[in-house]
Amino acid sequence: MGFLLVLAFGGMVTLTLLPDTRFPFADNVRYGVQECKMTGGPRPFSELLLMTQSSLNVALSVPLGFAVGWVGSLRRAVVVGLGALALLFLVEVVQYELPVLGRACDVQDIWDSLFGLVIGVALGLLTGPPGRLLVRRRLRA
């Protein structure tokens, strides 16, 4: 699960914090605007089934939530879950503080990522106990 956590964390950071390459980096520096779109809320599930930026945000955070559900004890799950939740907010703070990245800070991204995190945690909690039991049996054999 440590590998999955690192992979999910790395993917999220890579896809959300690398500079926008559609424009030259100098343009990002020159025209970057430090603002955060503060409107938004949970989207309808039917809208998340379409290929949009929102559905990609959801999909990006599902593996992180899945790893949270698989970490083992409740104490570990709570600690790692709080870290994952903090990461969702940290990504938007970095996008706000570094307009040079050419990324947009948006509260809607937090809602979408939170939804994906919840889906991943639910899947992890459903598959975690039976999965850990199978792993223990294989290790004994």
In short:
With 141 residues, the protein is mainly α. Helix content is 73%, strand content 3%. It has a domain of 89 residues.
Main pleated-sheet profile: 2 strands, parallel
What is the mean predicted local confidence, pLDDT? 84
Distance between the termini: 21 Å
The structural class is mainly alpha
Q: What Rg do the Cα atoms give?
A: 17 Å
Q: What would your notes on this structure say?
A:
This protein is 73% helix and 3% strand. Strands 1-2 form a two-stranded parallel ribbon. The protein is mainly α and 141 residues long. Helix 1 (2-17) packs antiparallel against helix 4 (53-70), helix 1 (2-17) runs parallel beside helix 5 and helix 4 (53-70) packs antiparallel against helix 5 (74-97). The chain has a domain at 53-141. It is elongated.
Key terms for this structure?
141 residues, two-stranded parallel ribbon, 6 helices, mainly alpha
Please describe the topology of this protein.
Elements: H1 2-17, H2 25-31, E1 36-37, H3 45-48, H4 53-70, H5 74-97, E2 105-106, H6 107-140
Parallel strand pairs: 1-2
Helix pairs in contact: 1-4, 1-5, 4-5, 4-6, 5-6
